[in-house]
Amino acid sequence: MSTPSDVTFQTLSARGGFKIGLVSLNRDRAMNALTQEMIQAIGRRLARWQQSKRIVAVVIRGEGRCFSSGGDIRQLYDGIACADANGLKRADQFFELEYKTNIQLHRFTKPLIAWGHGYVMGGGLGLFLTANHRIGTESMQLAWPEVRIGLFPDVLGTWYLSRIDSALGHWMGLTGVPVTSTDALSQHLIDYQLADGDLEAMIGQLRQLSWSSRTPDNQLLVRTLLSRLQSQSAVTAPASDWQRTQSVITTMMEPVIRQGKVALPAANPYQDDWIQRGLTQHHAGCPASARLVVEQLAAGWRMSLVEAARLELAMAWQACRHPDLVEGIRALLIERGSTPRWQHATPASVPDDWIKALMASPWERQHHPFADL
């Protein structure tokens, strides 16, 4: 459960009598995993700050080792594992709140600056990507790791992974392997690359900007400042895993993209550590999730953000009622080190009807919880 201090909100004085909002995720002991209560508090506070004439910009950061390792899947597991209507209702509410907050923050018009260091994954990545100014540091590890727990790349992964390089998008979704800030920058998943130690200096310089009551002018101020800080930063940019392995992964992903055939090799003949890590995670992951990735990305590039959120909410509703998700969380978190007993042995053995069921909406279009978004 959350405590009131798991997420804190401050206002920092800035020039001209304006203020900068500061959101801090404070669950370092849990790698800043987001609970339902934290997500709700962030959504409510930013709705207030959107309306405030004094708040000109907002910074979101994670205290301690990382920005956020994801959603609190133990909290999710407790709901699903109850196997009763109330437990499933709590799980449904978690996903509905999470995705709806993602859309809300995407529509935040003021400068929203996210500081991405350490793990930026899963639900935490969904929060990070809502910002209109996204900063990655040399320690960033950005990933959608849901294949490992029998879910799917959510928090608008449908939209984002279908808009980066196709081979890399499929690779990230099928393996859950993280990318560094260097590759995130090349794929426009972040906007700026700074050093881990630049945070306080950045906040200090934000407070000294010549703010005004005009949001477009303030957006330009922030872009100019962050571009300048990037050019001046002493950041040691990580090497690009993608540039080194692009030709190998592109060849590997070709039958996946063209034919929907998910049959990745168990070993990499080039003996590249990053590729081997991805292959290992893929083969340990959920076969049905791997099939879902292909379907998601085939549909995602034609969708708006809201349409992607509607699809993902239906898929999350179904995942909570299919056995792989609770089994994946059990093996990864509840009984650490145990081998998950997936419903299917390989992606090829997953029936088409199973995938259709996992993607079927339980609501008529006009009754979808996001029908009014």
Tell me what the structure shows.
The protein is built from 15 helices and 8 strands. The protein has one domain (4-367): 2-enoyl-CoA Hydratase, Chain A, domain 1, CATH 3.90.226.10. The protein has helices spanning 36-51, 73-81, 85-106, 122-129, 157-160, 166-175, 181-186, 199-207, 215-232, 241-259, 273-284, 287-300, 305-319, 323-334, 352-359, and strands at residues 7-13, 19-25, 55-62, 112-116, 119-121, 133-136, 141-143, 192-193. The two termini are 29 Å apart. The strands form 2 sheets. The protein has a 6-stranded mixed β-sheet with strand order 1-2-3-4-6-8, with helices on both faces. The mean pLDDT is 95. It is an alpha/beta fold.
Attribute tags:
2-enoyl-CoA Hydratase, Chain A, domain 1, two-stranded parallel sheet, 49% helix, 10% strand, 373 residues, six-stranded mixed beta sheet, 8 strands
Sheet having the most strands? 6 strands, mixed
Q: Uncertain runs with pLDDT below 50, 5 residues or more?
A: none
Query: The CATH topology, please?
Result: 2-enoyl-CoA Hydratase, Chain A, domain 1
Query: How many domains would you count in the coordinates?
Result: 1
Mean model confidence by pLDDT = 95
According to CATH, what is the class? Alpha Beta
Give the end-to-end Cα distance, rounded to a whole number of Å: 29 Å
